[in-house]
Amino acid sequence: MDESNEEELVFDFNAQELLDQLPDAYKMVFNLYVLEGYSHQEIADTLQISVAMSKTQLFRAKERLRKIYFQQQKTLKNEHY
Questions:
Q1: What is the rounded distance in angstroms from the CA atom of residue 37 to the CA atom of residue 39?
Q2: What is the 3-state secondary structure (H, E, C) of 16-81?
Q3: Quick check: 64 and 26 in contact, CB under 8 A?
Q4: pLDDT given for residue 12 in this prediction
């Protein structure tokens, strides 16, 4: 592979900093589902929301995290050049 075509991938991030940028509702569902292993039904029962709302909040949390992460990586890349 030609050196001029290679991009340095930087995986320098703090997961807690990313999670802290989520709205509380997204963070709660994300933590319960991903970190605690709750099902959507258990989350719905615990938070008194619908299963559909739990799934929607999780989807939106993941999308927001993805955007925040890629924005941070773009900023880091720009700082290195």
A1: 7
A2: HHHHHCCCHHHHHHHHHHHHCCCCHHHHHHHHCCCHHHHHHHHHHHHHHHHHHHHHHHHHHHHHHC
A3: yes
A4: 60
Separation CA 79–CA 61 (nearest Å): 27
**What does the alpha-carbon distance between residue 20 and residue 1 come to, in Å, rounded to a whole number?**
39
N-to-C CA span, the chain: 21
Tens of pLDDT, residue by residue, the chain (81 residues): 444 444 555 556 678 888 999 999 999 999 999 999 999 999 999 999 999 999 999 999 999 999 998 888 888 777 766
pTM of the entire predicted model? 0.76
Q: Which two tokens stand for residue 24?
A: 């509380």
